[in-house]
Amino acid sequence: MREFVSIHTLDEHPGIATLLLSRPPTNALTRQMCREIISAAAELGERDDIAAAILFGGHEIFCAGDDVTVRQTLKADEAEVAAEVGRAAVAAIAAIPKPTVAAITGYALGSGLTLALAADWRVAGDNIKVGATEILSGFPPGETVRLARTIGESKAKDLVFTGRFVDAKEALALGLINEMVAPDAVYDAAMAWAKRLVDHPRQVLAAAKARFGDGR
Hints:
By secondary structure, this protein is of the alpha/beta class.
């Protein structure tokens, strides 16, 4: 039974599932939440009734990254386990053998941004803030490969070294997001992207996605 991560489907949108992050107020990631993401991603991969998936943090905040309060209490060996589980959660999203779209609202920071980058497409509100912000909390970044492959190594280093916040317009220009819409339209835009794909043969979609490797 998962506490903070759930999968939802709607009769009016057959073939599409939403993987919902729900750990108020900011969906900050803990070891438990990351393990639940891994479990939910595996379920999505196994379900024959699902052709595409939306990764959603609700209408307020997508994911503010690692829970800093919790992270500060971890011993060195616990911190290493947490980092490994975090990397595994991102890899699990990337490995879902179906098209995925991240519907980004509010903030996608640190590991939250990395999680969004593991999706195949990213739709965001025009008021979002994203960034590789770990350094602002005194921690080294997690995975940087996905960020560098998305926007280029030099631009990725700028974000990682400074920890600065990036607004929606710059995020679109950099390629951190693929589509910018009004804040209230984020989920609907993600659903529209997914709906274009549900009529394709699912095995063919899976094979097409596999041609790109794990997304890293």
